[in-house]
Amino acid sequence: MPESPIRKLAPLAAKAKDRGIKVYHLNIGQPDLPTPQVGLDALRHIDRRVLEYSPSQGFRSLREKMVGYYARYDIRLTADDIIVTSGGSEAVLFAFLSCLNPGDEIIVPEPAYANYMAFAISAGAKIRTIATTIEEGFSLPKVEKFEQLINERTRAILICNPNNPTGYLYTRREMNQIRDLVRKYDLYLFSDEVYREFIYTGSPYISACHLDGIEQNVVLIDSFSKRYSECGIRIGALITKNAEVRQAVMKFCQARLSPPLIGQLVAEASLDAPEEYTREVYDEYVERRKCLIDGLNRIPGVYSPIPMGAFYTVARLPVDSAERFCAWCLEEFEYEGQTVMMAPASGFYTTPGAGTDQVRIAYVLRKEDLEQALVVLRKALEAYPGRIE
User: What CA–CA distances, in Å, run from 202 to 198, 209, 282, 314?
Assistant: First the structure.
């Protein structure tokens, strides 16, 4: 079971704070923006006399309201297509456990969200990665590269769109390429689409649920965490039109009894957040993205492609080891009582030696904090003994 590249340096950050150093957390996708007021009000005004189990698949009222939410994105569902989970993470795990046998293989473009590997290990499955490069903005390679990995053990392709950790948004051509592979080899397509609200280009959002001819192959992963800045309520969803998959998933749902009661109450209320909330959050991330990417690319030796979605970027640094550099920033460096915490990007790759000079940065801080974090990062790179010119 791998350590999380996002959290494994947390003890070093805690020690830095104990020394009185301010740490700018660029390592984790925890938004600092407020949860919708309607969600907070629902939490404050819970008037139940008993905090009971909910149905294993989640409250029907929540699932019916989610149907209306997805319809705004031209994703046509029924409440029965939706299973509420304890966060998007449980949705991924239950998808793997339900659709894969031990030894089965999943093809995943890398770099990829690090916990996918942990979930695959839990299910006894094996991840086969297909490389994308920072030089090409992390776009997908040609279909031939995928087909080189497909064998008798291949059961699925997993994508995250928009992507964590890179911020890449898959094009219509790329999504059609994946659709054709799924149809040709009768694979599952696990599609993690928790960042659909955060797309910053004129390019359209192409959901796996928009792809014709593979409706029974698609398992959509979703979450309320990032959309409404409510990661702690732990409400996600596994969505599929495949009744056999839902039947298998429900066995795991029943084994864990029910998804969080209070989280579902907050999530259901949050779906009524006004359009103004979504617009303000979106506009804020647009500003933060510009601030961070412009600032990174002005630092000598640093390069970041422009992320088209989510609120992350993978940046290349002029260092001998990004992991050593990130630890050094927390253990040995400070500038005017400040330092930065980033996630070493090698933890988002499974190919040995890949991403060793890269970091994932989340732009989830106020613009003023991002600007100061960029100053601190520049000073750290100037002082780092392992800098590469």
Answer: 12, 20, 14, 21
